[in-house]
Write a structure and sequence with these properties.
Layout (H helix, E strand, L loop, with lengths): L3 H9 L5 H11 L3 E2 H11 L8 H13 L3 E7 L5 E7 L1 H25 L7
Antiparallel strand pairs: 1-3, 2-3
Helix pairs in contact: 2-5
């Protein structure tokens, strides 16, 4: 179980742009409303990533303006009116670009943290 301070630190340490990639990936799994996106990210990350509404909804609105996602109003399983988001073709292309950058970054960081040969 994460301590409250550790959980907060995990939330604020998300690299800039990573949230967009994670939201786009979540929408690859299917159409979802904002709360559902937040819950999917939390569940898939074993409660490590907890995206607050103050971060999620501005990101969704920005991604919609960029044509990476589209939305339409619907009704949830709990009979609540909600905006449902889906990934667009441009969003799928953006996700490919973001994942490529992410994988390059992970490789570079791994090279620094675990070099093949230690320099003596």
């Amino acid at each position: 179980m994460l301590k409250k301070a550790d959980a907060y630190r995990n939330r604020i340490e998300l690299l800039q742009g990573t949230l967009d990639m994670l939201v786009l990936q979540t929408l690859q799994w299917g159409v979802q409303h904002g709360y559902g996106i937040a819950q999917a990210l939390r569940a898939r990350s074993s409660d490590v990533l907890q995206v607050e509404t103050g971060s999620l909804y501005p990101a969704l609105h920005r991604m919609e303006r960029q044509k990476w996602i589209s939305s339409k109003w619907g009704v949830t399983e709990q009979k609540q009116r909600a905006k449902f988001y889906s990934i667009t073709a441009e969003g799928k292309r953006q996700l490919v670009r973001d994942r490529s950058k992410w994988e390059s970054m992970v490789t570079a960081i791994e090279s620094i943290l675990s070099p093949a040969e230690e320099t003596r």
